[in-house]
Specification:
4 helices; single chain; alpha+beta; 6-stranded antiparallel sheet; 139 residues
Length: 139
């Protein structure tokens, strides 16, 4: 599978898009080696009104359009934690089900996962193990 990705920098209003296709292995390497803590510390030095985003990497499967985003923050003890954002087609009811169902892109988020857990779910995503990711969002 091939992916593209985007980066949200704390100090930049514009999202940085990387549209050159990358492999599953590259997705995992980029995420594991990203300067998460350094970006958070840098964000802490900015005037709160000038912070545009929390540090984030958003990976999109080029073939099926599903995307998975990791956003860094601090937990209540000041340790690194992540929120995970999963965007995929999902069946939704139209007019409370009176008009049946239709498929549309839906984003769900899950908060307060540590680095290792977040990387595990990213690995599920790049390997196409979507059913395991769905279980996270049913909790």
């Amino acid at each position: 599978m091939n992916f593209k990705y985007s980066i949200c920098h704390p100090e930049k209003e514009d999202i940085e898009y990387k549209n050159n296709p990358i492999s599953e292995k590259e997705v995992l390497e980029i995420s594991k080696n990203y300067a998460w803590i350094e970006k958070l510390k840098f964000s802490d030095t900015l005037n709160p009104e000038s912070v545009c985003y929390s540090p984030s990497l958003d990976f999109t499967n080029i073939k099926n359009g599903k995307s998975f985003c990791l956003t860094a923050g601090y937990d209540k003890n000041g340790k690194l934690e992540f929120s995970l954002w999963y965007n995929r087609p999902k069946k939704v009811k139209v007019l409370f089900g009176l008009l049946g169902e239709k498929e549309k892109m839906v984003v769900d988020d899950f908060w307060s996962l540590n680095f290792e857990e977040s990387m595990k779910y990213l690995e599920y995503f790049v390997n196409g193990n979507y059913s395991t990711i769905e279980k996270l969002y049913r909790k």
